Amino acid sequence: MGLIGAEVEPLVLAAKSTKPIISDDLDSWESRLEREVANDTSVLETDRAAIIRARKGQGLFKDRVSQIESRCRITGVQNPVHLIASHCKPWRDSSNEERLNGENGLLLTPSIDHLFDRGLIGFEDNGRLIISPVAHRPSLERMGIDTADPVNVGGFTSGQKAFLDFHRNAVLLRAARP
After folding, report:
1. Looking at residue 171, what DSSP letter applies?
2. In this predicted model, what pLDDT tens digit does every residue of 44-86 receive, in sequence order?
3. Which of 61, 68, 86, 168 has the maximum number of C-beta atoms within 10 A of its C-beta?
């Protein structure tokens, strides 16, 4: 708010006296990191804006992911309006360079992005879908995921494989692998 000017002072005062709505811990943590990036004067202002948009799966990051991916790996949706550029190595764990690296992303529909971000699904390097044993299978089925016979979504670039390895080891929730 400090960037807007003095006319925003009444809003700042109101914000200080308003209790925030508690979201899940992951969102709160990433929001705090986003604020840190926004206030980091060692990073150029245009770069800060691009990095923050990357957290939301939009902007430059989405453009870069779109050069590699053309559709949601699970649903097949191709319309970019309905796709989010999802980070394989989460935004919170990535360097600023990794946050904008297109190979650190997959284009996913919002519900599939949610499952991937929360570690309920992941992917093997060969494209085989991994379903976490803690995932609520009826919900996954309603979102279009065949839990009885997980699909193979196709291959990944070598860069994507490196980021997916991080996802499997640090994000995916105790997934059993063959």
Report:
1. I
2. 777 777 777 666 556 788 999 999 999 999 999 999 989 999 9
3. 86
Q: Residues 30, 56, 71, CA angle at the centre, nearest 5°?
A: 135
Helix pair angle (25-38, 45-55), 10° resolution: 170
- What sign for the dihedral angle of Cα 108, 57, 100, 96? negative
C-alpha–C-alpha distance, residues 124 and 112, integer Å = 16
Place of tokens 């990036």: 37
- Which tokens hold the place of 59? 């902007």
Per-residue pLDDT tens over the stretch 107-140:
999 999 999 999 999 999 999 999 999 999 999 9
What is the rounded distance in angstroms from the CA atom of residue 37 to the CA atom of residue 16?
A: 21
Separation CA 100–CA 54 (nearest Å): 6
List, in order, residues 6 or more apart from 172 with CB less than 8 Å away. Answer: 119, 121, 122, 130, 132
Task: Judge contact between 163 and 172, C-beta under 8 A.
Answer: no
Alpha-carbon dihedral angle through residues 108, 111, 113, 115, given to the nearest 10 degrees:
-130
Question: Long-range contact list for 134-141, CB < 8 A, 24+ apart?
Answer: 134/173, 134/174, 135/173, 140/115
